[in-house]
Design a protein that fits this description.
CATH class: Alpha Beta
Mean pLDDT: 96
Low-confidence stretches: none
CATH topology: Rossmann fold
Order of helices and strands: EHEHEHEHEHEEHEEEEE
């Protein structure tokens, strides 16, 4: 499956995808990495792996819609089967995003619908959440609210701060994203007008990543 990845930051999720692609555990080909930030460390990771990169700078456009149109024109020219938002920090205009619904996923560092948006680790600690985690979902026009694919949860420890909580969650995020994309690339998970389907059955609740790095239905 041909995949384009959008990034804004350090690129740890991109690095996990490249590693899984390289060792054959993930049947994808990352054909390009695009960013809104020329200095994003993720771009260096892509280049070192031999993946073409491209940057568009928002300040060079009259408004957000024009930027998004240019970005997705570049994406369309690559004809990917899947677009992965891996730490991409911009909200995409709904008119640009709509044609890509069902072909674009995002990883978000919270147990959605809790803590949509920014600063999720701090907000989880401030709320006294006993668990924190990450979610992979299909991208729709509403921020962090598209149909959920899968989640991973970790316990919040009494001595956790933002840095420690984020650091403990990060490797689980990587495993979650790889496992979720594997379902799509293998053809088991599809997006339909009625919502996601796994093995031709409606996916009514997000899958849960377990210790062996596989995805399972959550127990009720």
């Amino acid at each position: 499956m041909d995949v384009v990845v959008l990034v804004s930051g350090r690129g740890s999720n991109l690095e996990a995808l490249l590693a899984a692609q390289r060792d054959g555990t993930l049947p994808i080909r990352i054909t390009a990495v695009l960013s809104d930030r020329p200095a994003a460390p993720a771009l260096a990771i892509a280049r070192s792996a031999g993946v073409p990169t491209h940057t568009l700078v928002p300040a060079h456009f009259d408004n957000r819609v024009e930027f998004d149109r240019a970005l997705f024109a570049d994406i369309a020219s690559l004809a990917p089967q899947l677009v992965v938002l891996a730490g991409y920090m911009r909200i995409i205009d709904s008119s640009v995003l709509t044609p890509w619904v069902g072909r674009m996923i995002n990883i978000h560092p919270s147990l959605l619908p809790q803590h949509a948006g920014m600063h999720t680790h701090r907000r989880a600690l401030e709320a006294g959440d006993p668990e924190h985690g990450a979610s992979v979902h299909f991208v729709t026009a509403e921020l962090d609210s598209g149909p959920l694919i899968a989640q991973v949860a970790i316990d919040v420890l009494v001595d956790d701060d933002v840095a420690s909580l984020a650091a403990r969650l990060l490797p689980h995020e990587h495993d979650l994203l790889v496992a979720s994309i594997n379902l799509i690339a293998s053809g088991r998970l599809r997006y339909t007008v009625d919502g996601p389907q796994l093995d031709a059955l409606a996916l009514l609740a997000p899958l849960r990543l377990i210790a062996d790095r596989s995805l399972r239905f959550q127990s009720t």
